[in-house]
Write a structure and sequence with these properties.
- With 626 residues, the chain is of the alpha+beta class.
- The protein has two domains: 16-69 and 393-612, Chloramphenicol Acetyltransferase, CATH 3.30.559; 85-131 and 143-386, Chloramphenicol Acetyltransferase, CATH 3.30.559.70.
- The chain is 41% helix and 15% strand.
- It contains 18 helices and 20 strands.
- The chain has helices at residues 16-26, 32-46, 51-65, 71-80, 104-126, 202-216, 234-244, 248-258, 276-285, 323-339, 365-384, 397-402, 407-423, 451-461, 468-490, 496-508, 520-525, 579-600; strands at residues 93-95, 132-135, 155-158, 165-168, 179-184, 187-192, 194-195, 198-199, 263-267, 302-307, 312-316, 357-358, 385-392, 429-434, 443-446, 530-534, 542-544, 553-559, 564-571, 615-618.
- The strands form five sheets. Strands 12-6-5-9-10-11-1-17 form an eight-stranded mixed sheet, sandwiched between helices. Strands 13-19-18-16-14-15 form a six-stranded mixed sheet.
- Strand 10 (302-307) and strand 11 (312-316) form a beta hairpin.
- Helix 5 packs across helix 6, helix 13 (407-423) packs across helix 18 and helix 15 (468-490) crosses helix 18.
- The longest helix has 23 residues, at 104-126.
- The radius of gyration is 25 Å and the shape is globular.
- It starts with 15 loop residues before the first helix and ends in an 8-residue tail after the last strand.
Length: 626
């Protein structure tokens, strides 16, 4: 069985390495006067015998007690303490290829086939039979922690007034029958997938889904769209939930949802043209209360959406696991559906199966007020999201690899170039990097707005003062800097988690907040105007998400052999941003970079061809897992 390292703080007795990198990361992103003050603050913090050394010792002591010293701090800071609504602001989505359903029957057949695949995948997780993920690229062959997979179908994000709780279900000796919640026309139904100790086959599942669809058509029993409450801010939803649970009927319904395997959302047709961009929008927010916005329950990690018009995908509550886990799961499901023919020879007799159960709600006037407020806020979010899903067809990762460059580093430099082209400056940038080589590892941040990237984009902008050869030299230097920081991040030596640990251990010890963490430069360093992630797939689908700050961009990209899919998001009410403007600039910058490579006929060294680490599954004897 692969052995995973405990994640240690640092092998140094002081945080000086991190502080030096922090200064380098921010030196060109804040005004000179502000940076001079920051440098003085950092030097004081890191001085021998100073606060930095003390906090570092405490962090090292914590690392001896914990399997992963940063996990709890990171989870709370990244997700659980965040009070923003989950749709758009937090939950990424995977958009499936558009399905050509001829009607309701085809959509239900697809849903039954998909649920069969979900149950197969869950059985692999439960049986510890998933292939172990291994690192690729630099330090390929290192086993990656598989703990996140155990949370795909067993966790739930419980809203709280100040912080949420990630609840993990624990198995019992006699588990209750497993069930899925099916959302249809804003109503919720319990679909038992194990009855009398037998797992339902695809025919049975289709029969039950057909029943649910008919039950949802009953206007007499139509209940308010309670799912809208989960789309609200976390504090507001926690307050509404505290009112809901005063009634035993509501408590029972909430319990069934909170303990289900996942949601399957049977969406009504949207009535809009289904482009890549419009399908991404529908996955991110459901189109609001006049479409399918209430046909969701955002606290559950996996919501599989099957629209009658062929708009399909997955909505993911992000706190239990990272994008690579979402990719592996959804790719398995698409392969399963393609490789395992649908087994709907004959539908089971409805009398053979107990009917699915509609979840009931008792809604007081106070709950109705909460629903109205939630609906209004979701509509504003729908109106505000500015999304552009763009398929760049000029070239793909094969061209980049022929330049002996990492496709990920290349795209990251292109994103910096595009931002500079739009705004004449660089800004703090977040790129997620897997640290699953460590036990319970999640991610750290690759800070892509490097000084070297700035030198490159300035050279490309000031053509009169730089020859092509000089531009090419700055380009290669920028790629190398991005590659080197990537290696630091995936090996646990980036700065963000370490600084977070120092900040949170001071809070835990009830110490006065060190000046380093109240300094304007530190505040700026955590305002990620560019929030980026590479989410490559081997199936025809793509991932997208919203910006993380009001004046920022979300930029998710999927490099393929001969094209790159970019999903760029921003907010319409920001005068500073425009997804269309950014995509247009990005397209131009990618072409300029290609032209430069062709002009210079570069022959870089193999050392520049590092891939960003992601989990690549490899089959291990006996299917053992870490």
């Amino acid at each position: 069985m692969p052995v995973l390292k405990r994640e240690q703080s640092r092998d140094k007795e002081d945080p000086s390495q991190t502080l030096d990198k922090y200064l380098k990361c921010m030196s060109h992103l804040v005004p000179d006067e502000e940076f001079r003050k920051t440098k003085t603050i950092v030097e004081k913090f890191g001085a021998p015998g100073g606060m930095g050394e003390f906090l570092q010792r405490k962090l090292l002591e914590r690392s001896e007690r914990k399997a992963n010293w940063v996990y709890d701090y990171w989870l709370e800071d990244m997700y659980l303490n965040n009070r923003l609504a989950l749709p758009v602001n937090s939950s990424p989505v995977m958009v499936f290829p558009k399905q050509n359903f001829r009607g309701q029957t085809d959509a239900l057949r697809f849903a039954a086939h998909l649920i069969s695949g979900i149950l197969e995948y869950k059985s692999l997780i439960d049986g510890h039979a998933l292939p172990v993920d291994y690192a690729r690229g630099q330090q390929a062959g290192a086993p990656l922690c598989m703990e996140q997979y155990n949370k795909v179908f067993t966790s739930y994000r419980l809203p709280g007034s100040k912080t949420d709780t990630l609840v993990a279900q624990k198995s019992t000796v006699m588990p209750e029958p497993e069930h899925i919640i099916v959302a249809c026309k804003n109503q919720f139904f319990v679909l038992d997938v194990v009855i009398n100790f037998r797992r339902l086959n695809e025919k049975d599942l289709y029969t039950q889904l057909e029943r649910i669809r008919k039950m949802s058509d009953s206007e007499e029993e139509r209940l308010p769209p309670i799912g809208l409450l989960t789309s609200d801010g976390r504090t507001e939803w926690a307050e509404a939930r505290s009112v809901l649970i005063k009634d035993s009927t509501n408590r029972d319904s909430l319990d069934m949802i909170e303990h289900c395997l996942c949601l399957v959302c049977l969406d009504d047709p949207t009535g809009i043209e289904l482009t890549d961009t419009s399908r991404a929008l529908m996955m991110l927010h459901g189109g609001g209360n006049d479409k399918n916005g209430g046909n969701r329950w955002y606290d559950k990690p996996m919501q599989f959406v099957i629209g009658e018009d062929g708009c399909c995908g997955v909505v993911c509550e992000h706190s239990p696991f990272e994008g690579i886990v979402l990719v592996q799961c959804t790719e398995y499901l698409l392969r399963y559906m393609r490789g395992s023919p649908s087994k709907l020879v004959r539908a089971a007799s409805m009398s053979e199966l107990p009917a699915p159960r509609r979840l009931r709600w008792k809604c007081s006037p106070e709950i109705h007020d909460f629903l109205l407020a939630s609906s209004d806020k979701l509509q504003r979010l729908v109106k505000n999201l500015d999304m552009n899903v763009h398929k760049f067809t000029g070239y793909g990762k094969e061209f980049i690899k022929r330049q002996k460059m990492s496709p990920d580093a290349y795209v990251q430099v292109a994103l910096q170039f595009a931002f500079y082209r739009c705004y004449g400056r660089l800004v703090p940038t977040y790129e997620s990097a897997s640290i699953r080589r460590f036990r319970e590892g999640r991610v750290d941040n690759i800070r892509s707005a490097t000084p070297e990237a700035l030198a490159f984009v300035e050279a490309m902008t000031d053509s009169s003062n730089f020859t092509d050869a000089e531009k090419m030299e700055t380009f290669r230097t920028a790629i190398k800097a991005q590659t080197n920081y990537t290696i630091l991040a995936i090996t646990g030596m980036a700065i963000d988690n370490h600084l977070l640990g120092l900040r949170e251990i001071a809070k835990e010890l009830k110490l006065e907040k060190p000046e380093l963490f109240s300094d304007p430069t530190y505040v700026t360093s955590n305002q990620f105007i560019l929030s980026t992630s590479q989410v490559p797939t081997t199936e025809e689908m793509f991932c997208c998400y919203g910006p993380v700050v009001p004046n920022g961009y979300g930029a998710c990209y999927n490099p393929q052999a001969d094209h790159i899919i970019f999903c760029v998001s921003s907010f319409s009410d920001s005068a500073e941003t425009s997804s269309d403007l950014f995509v247009k600039a990005l397209e131009g910058c990618l072409k300029e970079m290609q032209d430069l490579c062709r002009k210079c006929h570069i022959q870089p060294t193999p050392a520049d061809s590092t891939e960003k680490e992601e989990g690549t599954p490899k089959v291990v004897k006996n299917g053992s897992k870490s």
